[in-house]
Amino acid sequence: EAVRRVLLLGEGNFSFAASLCGAAGTHVVATCYESEEEVCGRGRAAESIRRLREAGAEVVFSVDCTKLKDYFLPEEREFDCIYFNFPHCGRKAGVVKNRELLARFFHSSAEVLTEEGEVHVALCNGQGGTPADQPRREWHNSWQIVAVAAGAGFILSNVHPFKAETIHGYKCTGYRSQDKSFCIEGALNHIFTRSTPLPYFKPMICEIELESRKVSFQVPQILVDKINRGFLELNSNHPVRTVKEKLTAELNQAFPLQNIDCCLSLLHQGHLNDVCHSNIFWIILSPEESPSTEEMSNGVANAVLFSHVDFCKDTDENGWVNVQEGCHISKQYYLRPSLLPYAQAIIQRGAFLPGTLHVLSGPVFRKCLISPYSMPVFHEVVFVCAVNRGTENSCIQMLVNSIKTSIHSLHQTLSGSKLNINVQEATSFETTELNDFAAFESQLSEIQYFICMEIDTSGCCEKGSCVGIIRTELVGSELVVVSASLNLDLLTMLICGISDWRMLWTSDTRFRCQFPRGKLRLFKSFSLYPPSYVHDVSFWVPDGKQFDEVAFHTIARQVSGETVVSIQLIDSFQQSETGQKSLCYRLTFQSCDKALSRQEVAEMQLLFRKEIKQRLRVALR
C-alpha cells in the first residue's frame, strides 16, 4: 500500500506535526520558517522535534512556504496533503499582505501537490471571508481565501471547525512562536483541492445523417462541450438517465411502452409556428463548402457542410434566412428545440399503436436568458399515447398519477423534505408566471396542463418549478393523442438538490462518482462558496434597432464559458435631443465547479465588450 506523504508548513513548536507522526501509512515532513537554533530554544519544540525524528519523520528548517519546490528534489515533490495552520505575515500586517502571502503559498503548493491531493489551511474566525465564518466579516476586510486559492487553480471542497482540543498534545503558538498565541476559538480548517481547468474549446464539426445523407455542421461554440455527451445511453450512470429510467419503469406499470429514440435527428428544417427566432440555434447551408478529397474517398461524396449562425438579420416568407452582410442565403436548418415535432410526425404518419405509450427522449437546444434554471440545452422526454375520443381524460389521469407516483418515490428515497406536485390547467397561469421551459413550450402548441413541483425546504430549489406539460390533439374523428413532455434535467436538479444546471454538464469526476449506476443521491457540492466577480458594461443601442437581449446573453455565455450567472439591467435612459438609448448591465461571473480567478474574469469581460460591439453593433461607453 502506498505511503501517504504529508507536508506541514509554518510549524511553531511542532506539536501539531508530532500529533500526526504516529499515523499508519503516513510519512510526515514537518517544516518551519525559522532556523533550528531559533526554534529549539522555545517551549516544548525540542521534545516534539525529537519525537518526530524517532518516528521517522523529516524535520526541515528555514522553509519559505512560497518557494516549496526549491526545498525538495523532483522525485520528492509529490505530497498527498499540505497543512498550513494559521498563516500570518506577522506584527500588524493587514489583510492585503496576508492575501498576498496566501496567493504565493497556493501557487507554490500547486508545484508540489499530487493531482488528487489536498491543501488544508486553518484560519482564525472571520479571516477566510466565507459564509462558514460566524460572524462573517465584510468581504473587503477578509483574506478572501476562496478567490485567492482560485488564482492558483484550487477550489474549496470542505470546511469544518478546527478543534484544537481534539489534537493530542497540540498547543497553538503565535506568529513565529511568540508568547502570545493566536485566538483559535471558532477557527476553521479550509480544505482545498485542484480544480479541472477552465475549458478553451476549439471549433467542433458534428457529423450526422439527415434525409439519408451524411452531413456535417459546425457546432455553436456554447454547445461544444454538450453535444454527443451520451447521458441517456445504455452505459451511462448519469443521474438524468437514472431519473428517465425510473420514470418510464413506473409508467410501464400503467401502459405498454415503445421506445423510438433511435431515429431522432439533431437538425430540423422548416418553420416553427409562433416561436421567437432569436431563441433558436440556426445552422445554415454553406454553398461555398464542398467535400474534401478525404471525404470523397470515404464515400461522403454527398456530404454537405453546415455552419452555425448565431445572429440572423431576418427570415423571408419562404423560410430562407438572410444572414449578416457577406454571407450566403440558404435554407434554414436549426438544432432541434423540442421533441414535439417528432411526436407530431408520428401522429401524422399514423405510425402509432393505440393505447401504447411511445417514448421519445434526447437533448434539445434553445437560446435563453441566463439564470440558474434556464438551460440552453437539456434532456427532454416525451410520452405520446393515442386513445379513443372520449377516453382522453382517463388517459391523462393515468399518465399524471404515474408521473406523480414516480417523482414522489424518487424524492422520498433521498430527502425528508415535503414535496408537492401540482397539475394545473394552463388557463390558470399568467405568462409571467412561467419558467423558461414552460414559456417556450407554450409557443410550440396549445397546452392543457402544467406539471409543477414545489419542495418545502430552505435549499436550492426554485419554488413551484414547472417540470412538464400535457397536451391533447384530435386526430381524425375518432382518436385523441395525449402527450406529456418533461424536462429531465430540471427534474433531476429538484430531486437531487442540484442548485445549478451547469453542474449536470461538468467534466469533473467528483460529480459522476456520487451517482453509482442506477442510483440517485442528494448531491454534495465539491466546490463550496465559489468566488463571484461583478463587472458593468454600458453602451448606446444603434438607432432604430431593437436590442436583442437573448443574443446579448448568448454572447456572454460564449465568451465566459458559461461562467456568467447573472445579467441585470441596472440603468437605462434615452437622450431627448437625439432619441439615442443607453443601457447599462451588470454581469456576475461565478463557476459552480471550477476555479475562476479575478484575472480570468477581467479577460472575459474585455472579450465580451469586443464581441458585443462587433456582433450587436453597439457603441461602448
TrEMBL record:
Q: Carries keyword Aminoacyl-tRNA synthetase? A: yes
User: Per its UniProt entry, which superkingdom is the organism in?
Assistant: Eukaryota
Per the UniProt entry, what is one GO biological process? rRNA base methylation
Does the keyword Ligase belong to this entry?
A: yes
Q: Where in the cell is it found?
A: Mitochondrion matrix
Q: Where mainly found?
A: mitochondrion
Q: Give the Enzyme Commission number.
A: 6.1.1.20
Q: Which GO terms describe its molecular function?
A: ATP binding; phenylalanine-tRNA ligase activity; rRNA (uridine-N3-)-methyltransferase activity
Tell me what reaction this enzyme catalyses. Answer: tRNA(Phe) + L-phenylalanine + ATP = L-phenylalanyl-tRNA(Phe) + AMP + diphosphate + H(+)
Q: Look at the named UniProt entry and state the broad enzyme category this protein falls under.
A: ligase
Keywords linked to the UniProt accession:
Aminoacyl-tRNA synthetase, ATP-binding, Ligase, Mitochondrion, Nucleotide-binding, Protein biosynthesis, Transit peptide
GO CC terms on record?
Answer: mitochondrial matrix
Q: Which residues form a coiled coil?
A: none
The protein's matches in InterPro entries, at most eight in alphabetical order, are given as: aa-tRNA-synth_II/BPL/LPL, BMT5-like, Fdx_antiC-bd, Fdx_antiC-bd_sf, SAM-dependent_MTases_sf
One of this protein's Pfam families, by short name?
FDX-ACB
Q: Which residues form the FDX-ACB domain?
A: 528-621
Q: Which PANTHER family match?
A: FERREDOXIN-FOLD ANTICODON-BINDING DOMAIN-CONTAINING PROTEIN 1, PHENYLALANYL-TRNA SYNTHETASE
Give the protein family: Belongs to the class-II aminoacyl-tRNA synthetase family.
Protein name (Swiss-Prot/TrEMBL): phenylalanine--tRNA ligase
Source organism of the structure: Uria aalge (Common mure)
